[in-house]
Amino acid sequence: MVLPPDAGCRRVVETCIMTTPAATPVRRSLVGRIFTYLFVTVGVLASVAALLAGGLAWVFTSGDIPADNARNDFVDYADGITGVASVTAQIGSTDMQQPFNVDAMITLDPDCSIGDLERTVDAVTKHIADTETDVQVHPVVACGDLSVGVSPVAKVTDERMALLRELLALPNATGAAVVYPQPGYERFVDSSNSGVTLAVRVDSRDALVPTTRQLLAHPPLGVAAPAVVADAGSAEMGGLVGHYAGSSASRISVAGNTATRDELLGAVDAMAAHTLRTTATVSTAETTLEIEVATAEEARAVNAVIAGSGAEVTRTTLTIRP
Question: Which secondary-structure segment (H or E) carries 126?
Fold first, then answer.
């Protein structure tokens, strides 16, 4: 069969046209695209929320690792010291980023001596000085009615032991404590004895005012601006100062100077014959009195003493306990 010269060409062209039709473009509606974008956005946000929730749950359930480690390390160390009866430690002041302080209490065996106290204090001083951590541990070592707050600076701790011996040498002293005030809620470095608390337990209420006056006028070793505590001795006290203490006996606490501080001490001395218990607290912010008497007549006598003393008292609580 003989084909015309252009037959093959026509056949190819016709075949190509038949087998390669033009594609029709597909247009997605605006509503469809909006739904797609919303779906993707919601998925991403859900994923982020899940990650955040997991992270926050880990933070709150895992605790603060640096503070926990510092506390646990100290408790493990102190518990291994010979003669230690108990160790307690709690994480103190913090902010949202870094805990700053761990407050610790080391209590020695009931039959401890001042030599045992000094040996323990030396060991604890070396331990907290060698600890490489941003968390500061502030220990108090207690041996019966003797307590010393330990500083990471050996010279400061040694001076506190010397202050303790000076306090015990005072007339009528049966116990003593030398500690730095509790840190509250800010970071501080316990590296000096300026403002240290000097606390003395005396054997009678008659010794409260004379002991307080002596410590204020002539602080041992010339320590600057001490806070002074004199306590007449309550058996339930586990320590003389800080949040470890609590007294139901007569006490004078002076942590600042006021214009009528001496007049207040004179009033406390004068009312002693009429009271069962007197607690006088003096700070730069206020002066308070808590007084217990047995009769209404004694209450009137106490009020007369306060009124005639010239002392500026912010608040007085007077209780009659027959």
Answer: helix 114-130
Q: Alpha-carbon distance 278 to 270, whole Å?
A: 11
Strand ranges inside 151-299, DSSP E = 173-179, 197-202, 227-231, 251-254, 277-282, 287-293
- Maximum distance among all Cα pairs of the chain, rounded to whole angstroms: 149
Residue 42 host element (H or E): helix 30-62
What is the residue whose two structure tokens read 């007084």? 291
> Within 13 Å of residue 233, how many CA atoms lie on the same side as its CB?
13
**pTM score of the predicted model:** 0.75
Given a contact cutoff of 8 angstroms between Cβ atoms, the answer to whether 176 and 146 are in contact is: yes
Q: What is the DSSP string of 44-97?
A: HHHHHHHHHHHHHHHHHHH--HHHHHHHHHHHHHHHTSTTEEEEEEEE--B-SS
CA triple 239-245-247, angle to 5 deg: 110
Identify any residues that bridge with 143 across adjacent strands, giving them in sequence order: 146
Query: Which residue is it, tokens 């010393």?
Result: 148
Q: What is the pLDDT of residue 278?
A: 93
**For residue 191, what pLDDT is reported?**
83
Per residue in 45-100, pLDDT (tens digit) is 665 555 555 444 444 434 557 778 889 999 999 999 999 999 999 887 555 555 56
Residue-by-residue DSSP string for 267-298: HHHHHGGG-SEEEEEE-SS-EEEEEEESSHHH
CA atoms of 57 and 60, how far apart (whole Å): 5
Q: Report residue 1 CA to chain centroid gap.
A: 111
Per-residue model confidence as pLDDT tens digits over 24-50: 554 556 555 665 566 556 555 665 555
Q: What three-state secondary structure class fits 216?
A: helix
Q: In degrees rounded to 5, what are phi and psi of residue 82?
A: -60, 130
Mapping DSSP to helix (H, G, I), strand (E, B) and coil, where does residue 258 land?
A: coil
Whether residue 181 is predicted with pLDDT greater than 80 in this model: the reply is: no
